[in-house]
Each structure stands twice: as structure tokens, then as C-alpha cells.
Design a protein that fits this description.
heterodimer; A: alpha/beta; Nucleotidyltransferase, domain 5; 4 domains; six-stranded mixed sheet; 26% strand; B: alpha/beta; Arginase, Chain A; eight-stranded parallel sheet; globular
């Protein structure tokens, strides 16, 4: 049996699933001051009637790191960066403990200028005085050569509880994103590890011995042990839990739009030929771009509890939520109340919804019916516009080869899948001519998605046959290669590197699960003669579910 | 987070699957390391910098500025249409107000492509800037345009296309033609009989450094631009003046390019040459992008930058200083041609054009009607080692009625004569771009 828990903004959902389907589910209120409490409640609730020893795997999606960062409850972190020439490195500093260290590496991974050790020592001294115990060390182009990050780490080591090195978090380029990712990884390290310790304790107390995995924003999981080194990878996993839920609940094979209509927001995701699109660079957290991989997902301020605002003859909805809708005992008329008024749904205290809309009407020049109609229309159009914009953005994404420019596939959704409270009520209006599908069990799609998500990982390989070096920075692989090293060997090495790495963390990988996303080889020319090949491979284990629940 | 002062559009199209030949300098990975550098610097994440997908130029876009023999398809590949489309995308983003500045980092380049095209010369088939300029004039009221070409090679193609155009000021700063391909771009080349002083050449000696380039910009280009008052400034941003470029002999730097761009302050830049793809392009392109966006570029330096080694020889400084007077005279007081024909008659010139890349020889006779009211109707007769005698007739933008009628009658006669394999018509007032063949 598989257990999934999703700690969301309002609810903490849990589900237990076996080969016959959902065995048990439980919904607890999320207590933001004590997430562990919410998890314990959900755990106890969902396992109360089942044999706990039969649970074979636990996947947990939690907002802990996300909230810690957004609410600025993070630990003071010493950030050491060596940037070399380029954009003014001062613009990359985060917090008040950033130290810019002289030294540089070029885009080929050559060390151009050695690190200034004095500057590092000075930084360490200052951190010591300030009592800083966690650090991040990042150098520009460290994904091509990790030496300077390793050197900085070596010097800091004695004074630190934890250090994040940029290259170990991702093999992708983008120095500012690497800086932010490493910084936040260290800044949430302690709070995250304390939390996971408590979770493990709770499970032990409950007598659950199954291995625990943590959900990531890319719709996959990582083993709990691994996550202790990479806590930043646990951010923004919420939307992906729902998306993975839909994958297991519906047989999606074509280009599709996925809508998760919640209380405060509607999350939009796009599928291409049945697979969720992945954000190409990494997710933004509170406006800050990171290298954390995520499913492409756009959140807009329209949800069931979004406030209806009447101003003159104009009726708008959201983006503000002032507590629950009137039908749920709230004070402010919201989208759900408009749907209740029109009789599209009958939810909670419908009579109170009707009274609420009538009260709005009495304070305006519009009839109650008109207000409800306009509110629904506004919400529907807003969602539709955002879908159109998102598709436009995706279809206009730059490409870099003539082939892609001419043959590039455009996404044209043929279906819309909707989940969340008001999903059924709005399905037809939003979908228009496109086929709308509202799966069963959608209320706990997030917990189902969490339970069934599989391990994912992504890694880059970079090889230069002129210098005879191959590296896979995020996996810590680096070795000599021969002059005749080929793209094919590189692809094989990348796949092998990936599976061995996961194996070492206790995850078995089938060879055919590894997907080569990009593979390129450029002949490098020096003064009209070939000097070697520049080989790059990017591979991944795609997000997927261990089991499909549709028949 | 960094924010750009100017909203800047980057049209980045490296064409990773296209090259002239296996070891040619204009090859697949020319922009690979530039992309690495721009991504690693986080340029595409800067607020106010937008990456844009190029348009694909249409045959009409090309036929607006070129006579292609025998036709557009035969002398271009998809790569050229996308590269020109990249420049068009930049122009479009500027015209519709999406951005304040645009930089088309596209390849293949275009500034050696002339009015008539039989094939590839100097790595270029069609002229990206010219195609863009005609797109702008067709889709907006912008008329006065300045193109400043800072590629190390003389922009002979762009010069040829706008030779007779008094609304387009073309300035080329390059390594002296006596020492480098294509061999032209001398001081005395200063525009056709009706557009004297609208072509300005600044030939710099080999080993010119930052000091010399910035002197040319400050003391020659800027005063001329100040007087011309263009509505739009375009920079043909070639990057082969760099001290590491393998096929030129200059000593310019990445920081220098950024400064140059900052002072020139072009609305749209289009990448041209530049073949030091590891040691120069990543840094120059970064410098230009930052300068255009209005972000501090003072930390942009090549890893092997050495100010002392790149200091300019005093003799070179003296020589460049001495260029100032004749260059400014060419613009402010150009002498009219002594043999300039009267109004309504044709000025003629004969050109022999060498297509080095494709090994084609073209012989061309050009007839330009002198007109007081407009730019005048143009006709060329051209044959080459790959095409029999062909003709091109152009009725220019905003042509007067007499020139429009003249163009129509020239076309009629040309078709009737039966001596041209292909006739290309550019009729800008009617927006009619047609090809007639035997």
C-alpha cells in the first residue's frame, strides 16, 4: 500500500492506495504554526482503519521550505561567490553576509584567475563573529569546473554545520539562479532537517516503517535521505501533487489543459501529447529565479472563495480572498455564492449564498441575477484568457535550430481536465468547444498524486575531447576521456551515471526510464583545424506515476 | 534583482544546424559560447530583457530591397530567411512599442550582400539590415534612418544598397580596405550623385585600439549623427575588430564595444561578423546587451585582457586624428560629381562584383535617374557566371509621379526587348514586387 500526504495551504490531505484503488483518505485543516501537527492528524486519520505494516512507501509533499523562504523564517547564511568578469557581482548578493571573492573560471571551465584566499578568510572571520553556521559557495561556470567551489568549501568547512556547493544542485548554467538556489538550500537546511527528523519520529511512533520520499516541484520524488542535502528541492511541490493526481486519475494522451480550481487560486498546467510540460529553466520562488526544476504551472487569483466586487455596472472577481465564501459561513460574497445563487451547484448553506448576493444587489444598481451571471462570466473569461496567454507563451518559446524553427510542434489542446471544488460547475463554460473532463475522486487528487509519484532526476553531462575531460556536475562525476569519445558514449555515460547515483540512494532504475532530452556535439575549430568536440547531454527520469487509477 | 533601464528585446538565433562548410569560420557553434555566457550571466532573467523568437522573412521582405537572380529561392536558404526574420522581429518589437531597444543576435550575417544577389559573398546572401530597413519604411512613417556599421570589414553590401538613398545615412568604420577584404570603403566613397555625403567611410589602420575606435565615434560619427538627426539608429554590430579575431588585425576589446554601443545608443543592433567565437564573442555580446539595456557593463572584460599590451601606437593615434577632417568634410561639405547629369537623365556606372564564397563573377551596369523630387528610378542590367543577362528596376519609396511612370515604361521596354532572362521589379509606392522571366 502506498501512502501520500500533501500539506496544502488550507488542507492537509492524505490517501492510502493499493492495487484496487483508493483504500482510505483523510482531510485535516493545515495548522501553519505547526505543520507536524497537521501531518500527524492526517497520518492518524488515514491509517486508523488499515494495517500499517502493509504500507510499503510514503510520499510527502510539504510547504515547509516554501513558507520558510516566503515568510523569511530562514537561517542567516554566509554566501561566498566568485564571479570573475561579467555582470557586476554585487547584484547577486543575498542577505547581509555575501562575500565576493576574486577569482574566475571561463565558459570552457578553464581557471583564469585563482581564488583570493585572504578574502575568503576575512569572510569566514566575519561569519564567525556573526555566529553564522550555514554557508553557500558558488562560482561562475562551476558546472564546467567545480574546483573553486570545492576550494572555498575546504576553507569554510571547520566553521560550518552545512555548506551548499552550487554545482551539486544542478548542472544547468545560470550563475544568479545557482547563487539563489545554493543560498536557499542552506538557509532552510536546519529547519527542514529538524522537521524531517520529527516526521520520522512520528512515523516510528505510529509503527510505520516504510521508506519516505519527498515530493518535488517537478512532479517526482526524492528519497528522504537525499532531501536532507537538497532541502530546496522540496519547494513548491503543491501544484505538482495535483497534476500527478490527474495523471493517475485520467488517461491523458493528447495536448491538454489542466485546471485546479481551488479556494484562492486556479492553477493552470499544460500537457503536450499527454506529458506535463516542465519549466525550462527552473521555478521562481517569490519572484526569485532558481534552478529547481518544476512542472510548468501558472497560478491566477481566481478561486471559489474569490471576492465578488461590484463597482458601478462592472462586476469583477478576485484576486482577493476574504476568508471563506458565505456558503461556508464566511462574510464576503464569493464566486461559489454566485454559482449557488444560479443553482449551478448546491453547496453548503445555499440560502445564505442567495441572501448574500441579494445583499450585494441592494447596494448596487444591478439585479442579483445579473451580478451572479457577470461574476461567473468574469471568472470564466479570466481563466480562459490566461490559458490563451500561457499557450501563446509556450508556442512562442525561442528555438535555436532551423529544424525546430520550421518543424517545431505547436501545442493545441484537445481536452481540458478540471479538478477542485467549483470544477464541475465551471467546466462547460471554460472549456467551450473543447471537451471538458472532471475526473472522479478529484477532491483528493493532490494526495493521490503525492502517493503515486515516482522518483525523478535530471542531470547534465559536459565533455570536451580537446582537454579530455567529462563531467556531470550535479552527480559529482568527473573523469578523463579519450580523444575519440563520442556523443553515443556520452549518452550512455549520462544514463549510467544517473542510474548509479540513484541506486546509491536506494532507488532502482530501469534503463528505459531514462530519457535523453538533449544531446549535441559540436566540432570545435581552431584556426581552420578541428581541435576536438564539445559534447553536451541532458538526461532525466521523467515525472510519472507508479499506478493508474482509471479503468 | 537587476532591472534594465531600457526594455530590450534579444532575438537570439544561433542556427545550430547550419554552416557554409565543415571548417568555415561562419559555422554551427559560432554563437554557442555566447549563449553559454548569456545564460550563465542570467541575462534572460533580467527584468526588462525579453528573449524573442525570430520571424521568418518572406520572399516579399527580401524582394523589397534586393534583385535576386534568378529568384529569391535560388540564392537563399531557410537560415537566411530566419536571420533576416530575426532583424525584422527586432524592428517589429521596436515599432509596436514592446521594447525600447532590440538586438538581433542572428547568423548568418548580411552586410556584404548587395542590391543584386547572385550568390554568397563575404559569408552573406541577403542583407539583414537592408531587409529590415525596407520593412520599417513599409510599415511605419519612419524615413530618416542611420546605419552605423562597426564590423571590421567594410559594409560594402549595405553601402551599395543605400548608395543613392539620401534618407539613409550609412557610416562604416572598418579596417582599411588596402589591408582587408573586401578592399573597399575608402574615404572617397561617399554616396551616389543624388546622395552625396550620405555614405561615410572611416577606414582605420590595422592595430587600432579602444582609443582609436572611441575617437572615431566621438569625433566623427556622433557629430555627423547629431546633424543628420535620424529617427532611427541601427548598428551593424560586427565583432571582428577584437584583438583575438583570427581573420582581422585590430585591437578592439569587449569593454570597448560596450562603450561604443553606449555612445552610439542604437535603437536596433544586428550582429554581423566576428569569428573569435570563444575568446571574444561571449564577452562582446554580453557587453553590447548590457549597454543596450542600460546596465553596468564596467565588469565585462576578456579573461586575457591586458590594457598595456593593447595600448595604441602614437603613430596610429596621429593617423586616426588626421582622418577626422576629411571624414567630416565628406558629410558636411561633399563635392558634387563634376559629371553629374541634369534632372531627368541617367547617371551610369559599371560594376564588377566578386562573390568570394561562391566563386561567382558578376558584371553590372547601373542606371540611376536624376530627380529633383525623389530618389529617382533605378535600373540595373546584370549578368554573371551563373546567370545570363537579367535586369532589376526599382521605383523607390515615396517616388514622384514622373519616376513612377518612368519605372513602368522601363519595365514595359525591358519585357518587350526579350533580352533579359529575368526581370525583377521593386515598385515601393504600389508595394508590388514581381519577377518576370523569359
Amino acid at each position: 500500500m502506498l501512502l501520500g500526504i500533501d500539506v496544502g495551504g488550507t488542507h492537509t490531505d492524505a490517501a492510502v492506495i493499493d492495487s484496487s484503488g483508493v483504500v482510505a483518505s483523510f482531510k485535516a485543516k493545515t495548522d501553519h504554526k505547526n505543520l507536524l501537527n497537521s501531518i500527524n492528524q492526517a497520518l492518524q486519520g488515514v491509517t486508523s482503519g488499515i494495517d500499517k505494516t502493509k504500507i510499503t512507501n510514503i510520499n510527502l509533499s510539504t510547504t515547509l521550505s516554501t513558507n520558510a523562504i516566503i515568510e523569511d523564517r530562514i537561517e542567516k547564511t554566509g554566501l561566498f561567490i566568485s564571479a570573475g568578469p561579467g555582470i557586476n557581482p554585487q547584484s547577486y548578493s543575498i542577505g547581509d553576509c555575501t562575500f565576493i571573492i576574486d577569482g574566475s573560471i571561463d565558459h570552457r571551465g578553464n581557471i583564469v584567475k585563482p581564488l583570493n584566499r585572504e578574502e575568503i578568510e576575512k569572510g569566514i572571520d566575519e561569519c564567525r563573529r556573526k555566529g553564522v553556521k550555514v554557508f553557500a559557495a558558488v562560482s561562475k561556470f562551476s558546472t564546467r569546473n567545480k574546483e573553486q567551489e570545492v576550494e572555498m568549501t575546504g576553507l569554510i568547512n571547520n566553521d560550518s554545520d552545512f555548506i551548499s556547493m552550487g554545482h551539486s544542485l544542478s548542472g544547468q548554467l545560470s550563475f544568479p539562479r545557482r547563487v539563489a538556489t545554493a543560498y536557499y538550500n542552506s538557509a532552510v537546511w536546519r529547519i527542514y532537517n529538524d522537521f524531517t527528523n520529527s516526521v520520522e519520529q512520528s512515523l516510528a511512533d505510529l509503527g510505520i516503517k516504510a521508506p519516505v520520499n519527498i515530493l518535488k516541484a517537478d512532479g517526482g520524488t526524492m528519497p528522504l535521505n537525499m532531501s536532507r542535502q537538497f532541502p530546496v528541492e522540496s519547494i513548491l511541490s503543491g501544484p505538482s501533487a495535483s497534476i500527478m493526481g490527474i495523471i493517475s486519475l485520467c488517461d491523458i494522451t493528447e495536448d491538454s489543459v489542466i485546471l485546479d480550481i481551488g479556494g484562492t487560486t486556479t492553477d493552470i498546467a499544460i500537457f503536450a501529447s499527454g506529458s506535463p510540460l516542465i519549466e525550462s529553466n527552473g521555478v521562481k520562488l517569490g519572484g526569485i529565479p532558481t534552478l529547481v526544476r518544476a512542472l510548468q504551472n501558472k497560478s491566477i487569483g481566481i478561486g471559489g472563495d474569490s471576492e465578488i466586487i461590484v463597482s458601478g455596472k462592472e462586476v469583477t472577481v478576485g484576486p482577493v480572498r476574504r476568508g471563506p465564501c458565505i456558503a461556508d459561513g464566511g462574510e464576503t460574497a464569493a464566486l461559489v455564492d454566485a454559482l449557488n445563487y444560479k443553482g449551478v451547484i448546491s453547496y453548503g448553506h445555499r440560502d445564505k449564498s442567495i441572501a448574500g448576493i441579494k445583499k450585494l444587489a441592494s447596494n448596487s444598481k444591478l439585479f442579483a441575477g445579473r451580478i451572479a451571471d457577470e461574476a461567473i462570466k468574469y471568472a470564466v473569461n479570466k481563466v480562459k484568457d490566461e490559458i490563451t496567454n500561457l499557450l501563446l507563451e509556450i508556442n512562442q518559446k525561442p528555438v535555436y535550430t532551423i529544424h525546430e524553427m520550421l518543424e517545431g510542434k505547436k501545442i493545441k489542446p484537445e481536452r481540458i481536465y478540471l479538478i477542485g471544488g467549483p470544477a464541475g460547475a465551471l467546466a462547460k463554460a471554460i472549456a467551450g468547444n473543447i471537451k471538458a473532463i472532471v475526473p472522479e475522486n478529484y477532491q483528493i487528487a493532490n494526495a493521490i498524486g503525492a502517493a503515486l509519484a515516482r522518483t525523478t532526476i535530471e542531470a547534465e553531462l559536459f565533455a570536451d575531447t580537446s582537454t579530455g575531460r567529462m563531467i556531470m556536475p550535479s552527480l559529482g562525476i568527473e573523469r578523463q576521456i579519450e580523444k575519440k569519445y563520442s556523443l553515443r558514449e556520452a549518452e550512455e555515460d549520462a544514463a549510467a551515471g544517473l542510474s548509479e547515483y540513484l541506486m546509491a540512494h536506494g532507488v532502482d532504475v530501469e534503463k528505459d526510464e531514462i530519457d535523453i532530452m538533449q544531446a549535441s556535439s559540436f566540432r570545435m575549430i581552431d584556426s581552420f583545424y578541428s581541435s576536438g568536440d564539445d559534447i553536451r547531454v541532458r538526461c532525466q527520469i521523467k515525472p510519472g506515476v507508479t499506478m493508474k487509477l482509471y479503468s | 534583482m537587476l532591472t534594465a533601464k531600457n526594455r530590450t528585446g534579444l532575438i537570439f538565433f544561433p542556427a545550430y544546424d547550419w554552416a557554409i562548410s565543415a571548417t568555415h569560420p561562419e559555422r554551427e557553434e559560432r554563437l554557442l559560447y555566447t549563449q553559454d555566457q548569456l545564460i550563465e550571466e542570467g541575462v534572460f532573467d533580467i527584468e526588462g530583457i525579453f528573449e524573442m523568437k525570430p520571424d521568418i522573412a518572406t520572399e516579399t521582405d527580401v524582394m523589397r530591397s534586393h534583385f535576386c537572380f534568378p529568384d529569391v529561392k535560388k540564392v537563399t536558404t531557410e537560415s537566411h530567411m530566419i536571420s533576416a526574420g530575426g532583424a525584422i522581429r527586432g524592428a517589429r518589437a521596436y515599432l509596436n512599442g514592446e521594447v525600447d531597444r532590440a538586438f538581433a543576435l542572428v547568423r548568418p550575417p548580411g552586410h556584404h550582400a548587395m542590391k543584386s544577389v547572385h550568390g554568397n559573398r563575404g559569408f552573406c546572401n541577403i542583407n539583414n539590415e537592408a531587409v529590415m530597413v525596407e520593412y520599417i519604411r513599409e510599415h511605419s512613417n519612419i524615413r530618416r534612418i542611420a546605419i552605423v556599421d562597426t564590423d571590421c570589414h567594410h559594409g560594402d553590401g549595405t553601402q551599395d544598397i543605400f548608395w543613392h538613398d539620401r534618407d539613409v545615412l550609412f557610416i562604416s568604420i572598418h579596417q582599411d580596405g588596402r589591408t582587408l577584404y573586401p578592399g573597399s570603403g575608402h574615404l572617397r566613397e561617399m554616396g551616389g550623385p543624388s546622395a552625396k555625403g550620405r555614405t561615410i567611410n572611416i577606414p582605420l589602420p590595422p592595430s587600432t585600439s579602444e582609443e582609436g575606435f572611441l575617437f572615431a565615434i566621438n569625433e566623427m560619427v556622433l557629430p555627423i549623427l547629431h546633424d543628420f538627426k535620424p529617427e532611427l539608429i541601427i548598428n551593424s554590430a560586427g565583432q571582428d575588430n577584437h584583438y583575438t579575431d583570427p581573420i582581422t588585425n585590430m585591437n578592439f576589446t569587449a569593454g570597448g564595444y560596450a562603450m561604443l554601443n553606449d555612445r552610439l545608443n542604437p535603437h536596433i543592433s544586428v550582429l554581423e561578423g566576428g569569428y573569435s567565437i570563444q575568446g571574444a564573442l561571449p564577452y562582446i555580446n554580453l557587453g553590447i546587451v548590457l549597454a543596450m539595456a542600460g546596465i553596468d557593463y564596467s565588469h565585462v572584460k576578456e579573461p586575457d585582457y591586458n590594457a598595456e599590451r593593447l595600448a595604441q601606437d602614437p603613430a596610429i593615434t596621429d593617423y586616426i586624428t588626421s582622418l577626422r577632417k576629411p571624414v567630416l568634410e565628406n558629410y558636411f561639405g561633399p563635392h558634387a560629381d563634376y559629371d553629374r547629369p541634369p534632372d531627368g537623365e541617367f547617371a551610369t556606372r559599371t560594376k564588377n562584383i566578386n562573390y568570394d564564397t561562391d566563386g561567382i563573377q558578376e558584371t553590372q551596369q547601373e542606371y540611376m535617374m536624376m530627380c529633383r523630387k525623389c530618389r529617382g528610378v533605378l535600373m540595373i542590367e546584370s549578368h554573371s557566371s551563373v546567370n545570363p543577362l537579367s535586369a532589376g528596376i526599382e521605383i523607390p519609396v515615396d517616388a514622384c509621379w514622373r519616376c513612377r511612370r518612368k519605372g513602368a515604361s522601363l519595365l514595359k521596354e525591358a519585357v518587350k526587348s526579350g533580352k533579359f532572362q529575368t526581370i525583377q521589379l521593386i515598385d515601393r509606392p504600389e508595394k508590388n514586387y514581381e519577377r518576370f522571366s523569359l
